[in-house]
Design brief:
The structure is a single chain. This protein has one domain (9-493): Amidase signature (AS) enzymes (Alpha-Beta Complex), CATH 3.90.1300. Strands 1-3-2-4-6-5-10-11-9-7-8 form an 11-stranded mixed sheet, sandwiched between helices. The chain is globular and about 65 Å long. Helix 2 runs antiparallel to helix 3, helix 9 (309-324) packs across helix 11 (356-369) and helix 9 (309-324) packs across helix 12. By secondary structure, the protein is α/β, with parallel strands linked by helices. It has helices at 9-17, 23-36, 48-63, 105-112, 160-168, 184-190, 224-232, 278-293, 309-324, 342-353, 356-369, 374-395, 414-418, 422-426, 433-438, 467-481; strands at residues 43-46, 74-78, 116-121, 173-178, 193-196, 216-221, 264-268, 297-301, 401-405, 442-449, 455-462. The chain has 16 helices and 11 strands. The chain binds glutamine.
Length: 493
């Protein structure tokens, strides 16, 4: 049998059902691979003992005929999801000792479906960033190597640990979160598939908050079907989150029919700038051609307020972050640095516990919310956010979905990113933030390799709560693109 870490979730479920493999075998193979690839630093906290115990329990359940929808499948959670009794750090120093007494709704649902958790995955600190370089636990390496064969590339972020682990065979699927692109951009950088569902499709309960009006949980996996399977078992109403939707969750796998004849796909003009990276432009053109050949109708559309999405996102996200992160005061949750007064305790704790990028965003957010600047920045940003939303609502009257690049470049090197200013790194979110601000579902899937052999993903954006159309189009594009490349099996440290 092929190496078990190459299997997709739906393939493994078949083999488990036929009793050709056990969950313990499947889990052990992934644990072995995790050990070999420890240098990638995809995991902050691996949990091998509890994983094997969970796998053994899953095998017993299966033998007794009790099977969840994802029975026995080894997955891992971004370290932003609170896991009861297991350290949850948000890749920060301030939460480096935090052991939650409760479980997030989404990770609970995945457990309930029979999954086995292999551990907690690296991320940018408090999900702020696009490379995992802001993690207090060090950067994750992209399993795809550069032309010299060196592991010099970032995996993207913030869900970079999730993307790298899925890509390298260190878990079969993973949870991510996406506030402004953190599922879609790392999926593109690592050659995996990931979907940010509609805002409100999944509960945010127990997920460390970054920007509450944007944060959304979503799955990352090796193909579209696996993402649909995972999302089936993550989504749904939750009385513990007042913003989660009460709409019923359809079976997303039912949308994967492959026949997209007559579907109307919009191509937003504003995403094509003169200096668009040549590899990304070529990938986009290829995607357009493939959808056309599959029978879709390609329609040029315009989203005129797209150019404001990035500044609006950074105002709104920082404002909400500054408010959300005020709870880390050294009194509850956190590592504490004492002082002579209460104010000093706060100051010392927060100065010591937050990284530079997190502090920058708290300062920016506090500034845009301050009395003198609230109208000029925050209120204005909220108004423009509505215009961005209206643009999308308008085009969805004529098209079923949109096709656009997920990221402006293939994976960048650490060296290149180290020398970039914060604002330059923010520019990497130019294609993902519009759908985030509008709360729309958007999926990134790999379609081709760049000239230097790196994966490039395209993004399919759908209307609110229409993940089914997103999955439907994505499955057809996936078949047509036939992207079956994986990084070289990890061999060295
Ligand atoms: N890269 C974006 C940021 O730094 C998006 C992060 C996210 O989606 N969590 O804010």
């Amino acid at each position: 049998m092929e190496n078990l870490v190459d299997l997709h979730i739906h393939e493994a479920l078949d083999l488990l059902k036929k009793k050709e493999i056990s969950s313990v075998e499947l889990t052990q193979s992934h644990l072995n691979e995790m050990e070999k690839a420890a240098f990638l630093n995809a995991y902050i906290t691996p949990t091998p003992e509890s994983a094997l115990a969970q796998a053994a329990e899953s095998d017993r359940r299966r033998a007794a005929g009790i099977c969840g929808a994802l029975e026995g499948i080894p997955i891992a959670n971004k370290d932003l999801y609170c896991t009861k009794g297991i350290k949850t750090t948000a890749a920060s120093k301030i939460l480096s000792q935090f052991i939650p007494p409760y479980e997030s709704t989404v990770s609970e649902k995945l457990k309930h479906a029979g999954t086995v958790m292999l551990g907690k995955l690296n991320t940018d600190q408090f999900a702020m960033g696009g490379s995992t370089m802001t993690s207090w636990f060090g950067v994750t390496k992209n399993p795809w190597t550069d032309e010299t064969g060196a592991y010099s590339l970032v995996p993207g972020g913030s869900s970079g640990g999730s993307a790298a682990a899925v890509s390298a065979g260190l878990c079969m699927g993973a949870t991510g979160t996406d506030t402004g692109g953190s599922i879609r951009q790392p999926a593109s950088f690592c050659g995996v598939t990931g979907i940010k569902p509609t805002y409100g499709r999944c509960s945010r309960y127990g997920i460390v908050a970054f920007a509450s009006s944007l944060d959304q949980a979503g799955p990352m996996a090796r193909d579209v079907q696996d993402c649909a399977l995972l999302l089936n078992n993550m989504a749904g109403f939750d009385p513990k989150d007042s913003t989660v939707s009460e709409l019923p969750v359809p079976d997303f796998t039912a949308a994967l029919t492959g026949d997209i004849r007559g579907k109307k796909i919009g191509i937003p003009a504003e995403y094509r700038s003169d200096n668009l990276n040549a590899d990304v432009a070529a990938a986009w053109d290829k995607g357009i051609r493939l959808l056309k050949e599959a029978g879709a109708e390609i329609i040029d559309v315009s989203l005129p307020h797209t150019k404001y999405a990035l500044p609006v996102y950074y105002i709104v996200a920082c404002a909400e972050a500054s408010s959300n992160l005020s709870r880390y005061d050294g009194v509850r949750y956190t590592t504490r640095v004492n002082g002579n007064t209460l104010d000093e305790l706060y100051e010392n704790t927060r100065t010591d516990g937050f990284g530079a990028e997190v502090i920058r965003r708290i300062l920016l957010g506090t500034f845009v919310l301050s009395a003198g600047f609230y109208d000029a920045y925050y209120l204005r940003a909220q108004r423009v956010r509505r215009l961005i939303y209206n643009d999308f609502k308008q085009v969805f009257q004529t098209v079923d979905a949109l096709l656009a690049p997920a990221a402006p470049t293939p994976a960048l090197t650490y060296e290149a990113m180290k020398n970039m200013s914060p604002v330059d790194t923010y520019l990497g979110d130019v294609f993902t933030t519009p759908a985030s601000l509008a709360g729309l579902p958007a999926l990134s899937l790999p379609v081709t390799l760049s000239k230097t052999g790196l994966p490039i993903g395209l993004q399919i954006i759908g209307n609110h709560f229409d993940e089914n159309t997103v999955f439907h189009v994505a499955a057809a594009l996936e078949t047509a693109a036939n992207f079956n490349k994986r990084p070289h099996r990890v061999v060295k440290g």
